């Protein structure tokens, strides 16, 4: 691994498209992360995919051989919940999300309302694989009625072994098209995410690097907030996308995959 990356203390990994795709682990991903831990480095797994809980990712990463500690896993759902607890305490929230995400909100003490409430204070949309027209209709109705609009993360597509499926950003685009209101996003690449990682780890931004497969989330998190960014071409972004990007939005490093990162000088 090149010297600048080797000097870092915290290595933040996106999951889907970076260390695995669906249930398939990428070659060298486990070996690379094991080598970082053996060298005394800290590792964090951060995904924008809030459709599952940290407990789900703990089980999956364990099953795939990554030997994670619960403290190493964060999602955009965690960041959104923390924002609501700190800055919107006591507000009534309508959530468009999976049952797993709903359970996280309830356990954290966020007051959720159903689709039959007269009004709510906040609408939160996320990556919802249980999405229905009724949920979308209620979200739009509440927003038109004056509810604040938040979204856990901006990803338009989620990579799977069978191709891409619509993600949180695509659902938010529907709501925006109907209401004319754009959400405040959380997760990568927004400041609340890097602030939470700093708080959890006690490390500064210049001690971190982030590995991911998306320019507009993973890499943008680094570019906007002073964290060294490493793009791997194993997921959504292709080499031509990097060439077409504005120079200010390009990653600090580009590799085919994590195996190439290990082999770099």
- The CATH topology of the largest domain corresponds to Rossmann fold
The termini sit apart by: 5 Å
Question: Which regions have little confidence, pLDDT < 50, spanning 5+ residues?
Answer: none
As a whole number of angstroms, the C-alpha radius of gyration is 18 Å
Number of helices: 11
Q: Mind telling me the CATH class of the largest domain?
A: Alpha Beta
Helical/strand content category:
alpha/beta
Given the C-alpha coordinates, what overall shape results? globular
Helix fraction by DSSP (H/I, runs of at least 4) = 25-40%
Q: Describe the strand arrangement of the main beta sheet, using strand numbers.
A: 5-4-1-13-14-15
How many strand elements? Answer: 15
In CATH terms, the superfamily of the largest domain is HAD superfamily/HAD-like
Q: Main β-sheet: number of strands, strand sense, barrel status?
A: 6 strands, parallel
The fraction of residues in strands falls at: 15-25%
Q: What's the rounded overall pLDDT mean?
A: 95
User: Can you write the helix and strand succession as a string?
Assistant: HEEEHEHEHEHEEHEEEHEHEHEHEH
Tally of structural domains = 2
Known CATH architecture of the largest domain: 3-Layer(aba) Sandwich
